[in-house]
UniProtKB/TrEMBL annotation:
This is Glucans biosynthesis glucosyltransferase H. GO terms for cellular component: plasma membrane. Pathway: Glycan metabolism; osmoregulated periplasmic glucan (OPG) biosynthesis. The chain crosses the membrane at residues 80-98, 118-139, 441-462, 482-503, 572-590. It is found in: Cell inner membrane. PANTHER family: CELLULOSE SYNTHASE CATALYTIC SUBUNIT A [UDP-FORMING], GLUCANS BIOSYNTHESIS GLUCOSYLTRANSFERASE H. Belongs to the glycosyltransferase 2 family. OpgH subfamily. NCBIfam families: PRK05454.2-1, PRK05454.2-3, PRK05454.2-5.
Amino acid sequence: MSTLDTSFSSASRGAPCPPRSADAAMAPPLHRSAMPARPWVGLRAGLAHALRGEPTSGTPSSLHDNPAPWEQAATRRRRAFLATIAALTVVATVWLAHMLPAADSVGLQALRTAQIGLFALLFAWVSAGFATALMGFVVHLRGDRYALSADAVRHRPLPDDARTALIMPICNEHVPTVFAGLRATCESLASTGGQRHFDLYILSDSSKPELWAAERAAWEQLRASLDEDGIAVQVYYRRRKLRRHRKAGNVADFCRRWGRNYRYMVVLDADSVMSGQCLTDLVRLMEAHPQAGIIQTLPQAVGQTTLHARAQQFASRVTGRLFTLGMQYWQLGESHYWGHNAIIRVAPFMAHCGLADVPGRGALSGEILSHDFVEAALMRRAGYHVWLVSDLGGSYEQNPPNLIEELQRDRRWCQGNLQNFQLIAEPGLHPVHRAMLATGAMAYVSAPLWLAFLGLGVASWVQHAAQSDGTGLAPPSHLLALWGLTLTLLMLPRALAVAVVFLRREQAEFGGGWALVRSAMAEAALSVVQAPVRMAAHTGFVVAALTGWRIGWTSPAREALALRWRDALRRFAPQSAGAGLALLALGVAHLPALPWMLPVGLPLLAAAPLAVWTSRENDLSQATRTLLIPEERHAPRVLRRAWRFARQPQAVAA
């Protein structure tokens, strides 16, 4: 057959049926088809095409003379979005240019110019986040008649031929978590009556023999449990021996083998849990919108109990929802795909979303690392729409339980996003998806840029102090006002998000009004304290990626385990040592500047204790309902079942 393991298996169920051996049932017959990967032009060649005036953008739907109403609305909204960013950036940059002291030497002039340039870029980045949140607030107040809505299709019948595969690619994952979520998802799907439209595939890339046995046993237990409950969802398990192209290759292998059997596929992550209502609504949305190629849900982070994870869960539930509404507002049918908890139209995905290796040498060449943004861009290039739907409830995931796990995930994403930037000039990509590739890189490149801006500011301050006999113990008041404006733009989205909760009268679900405000303040404070640690770590990731340091791609920890002190010290000691030396040097060079750098330096010095403290459960925050989210207060049935199965080793093999 191939280099892949042939131990494929399935379970076919209707009413309760007698148990069968694992070897008695096989996978569906192979229905092979191609998934071609179009070679990339590359960044240099793409830019050369553009400089020669050759077309490099536009999709079939954006080139015709009569754009759809939503496309016209999207154009107007994007102009308003860019105008808001430009206006805020111009005002702030001109303000900074006027307040900086005049340069009377070539060196100071170079510092001044670099400061202004970096500030303009970084303030535009901050303004983009603020503008997105502001648009989300407007959507809450006014609604959005152009957005896709699950409510509009909820009573639409599912046609018999709307066959959908639920696929979960896994690689060295925590087996009980994986199969507990799958069992709860299948139960929820059965409660809707739509289970006959779905098959489930567990696509294993695990490399450890002990995990192969655990996965196989858990799969058999899952089949038996569903059989006992009379749940007619067909379940398959496949393990690859040749693990090429990571998760994207795992999904592509499924498509080449069985993709033609299905109209749609829903991609799950190893920690995904989805309700049956959400899954059937996704299929209904696809049926109602034949040009939709990908529809992405908003996965809500749940299930973790550490202080770090609960803060992230609260931010996702409150501020994240507002940002999603804002992105949905200006992106419309050219939106994000995050790689999981989304439905994909299989035929165009197979025809147009094959991923070739990125040409070149070094860490940013070779296999595509972060496939999701690229697949969305290719789907749109083929003329299909990519939608983000905010009113689809019942889509869940887990966040990293501690800061180290978060940074390990960010390191992978950083390298993948920087690699994706090389595809920004590919012919045929829609401008919005080009912008997404750029902002994906900027999410990490902004860290060394902020660090450089701080360094230039300190250098300029010290230089001017030296030339003015050391006068000037504090930065000018108007400079502090500019920093205040920047912090305001960073914090206003949180305030708007809390306001939305009150406007929706949902504060009781967060423990009450005071608990909601207290939670927002606690999350904001923790975010501010952790920001320098993230900035330093992301700077290191960018430098490593650009200098050719390849990284391993391991599965993140799904279970909450308190960090050990030695692990935290090993990870953060270099940052703390670097911060200590920098503060010492600044104190020697210009002592009055030292207090102004402490908000950045102190969190770096305390990075290890901070990581250890936030990696543990915090009884006080739970007792006072701080950082409470609705799913903790009244968990939906699908989550309660998933958590129950995960706690019962006999329910799924460990």
